[in-house]
Fold:
Amino acid sequence: MLSPRADSGGGGPGSGGFRKRKHDNFPHNQRREGKDVNSSSPVMLAFKSFQQELDARHDKYERLVKLSRDITVESKRTIFLLHRITSAPDMEEILTESEVKLDGVRQKILQVAQELSVEDMHQFHRAITTGLQEYVEAVSFQHFIKTRSLISMDEINKQLIFSTEDNGKENKTPSSDAQDKQCGTWRLKITPVDYLLGVADLTGELMRMCINSVGNGDIDTPFEVSQFLRQVYDGFSFIGNTGPYEVSKKLYTLKQSLAKVENACYALKVRGSEIPKHMLADVFSVKTEMIDQEEGIS
Structure:
């Protein structure tokens, strides 16, 4: 008596013959010929056009991701440069150098605007949002150092209008979309979410600037930063949970930065006269570690 496995050619449920007969019904040559015939059908031609469109969109998305990465890196370098103001003897020199770096960042943003000239920006927003947030952080940090105030979203967008007449430099006179196409003008608008997230990240840089300025004997900057952060925190509090999830998530970090700056101002006001200036930075660093331990961060 033969077992079911021994019957290799059988069609029983225990044998593998069913799969073989299923493939044998469609020989390889016939399948290839059928594919060649169907390749010219309207359905196949339509799907080929879909494939080309999706490939082009994917390639553009990857190019935007690379540009966003370059914008992020250059913006971070600008922020690091601006932090040197607390210890540099000539502030104007650093501000001039930072403006040159920001002009280089805007040239990258010009390439993004050219990529999105005939596209819906919101379809590619995820690819560029990181770089735009970092750019907002760098520009707002530079603006605060100059004016001790917050730059508006409209002022940032005015700097992101480019034309071929000035070789990529921003055009100060806004124009309509119809005029943009005629004179070769590109523009990129920062979204409200990118602006809010960039301002939220700015608070961390201002906290570092406050601590560094105290270490260099500057006792005025911490109080100016504290008042500014309090206004920013009040503004974010009005948004609350009604805004985007990322904004409400960064509200906790903003509150931390404000608490550290207020503790620094408290120490300056109460104990500033009895602590030597070269030891104030050490006192603030200890206070910062204590705050982080209480909140379960470290």
Observations:
- The radius of gyration is 30 Å.
- The longest strand covers residues 161-163.
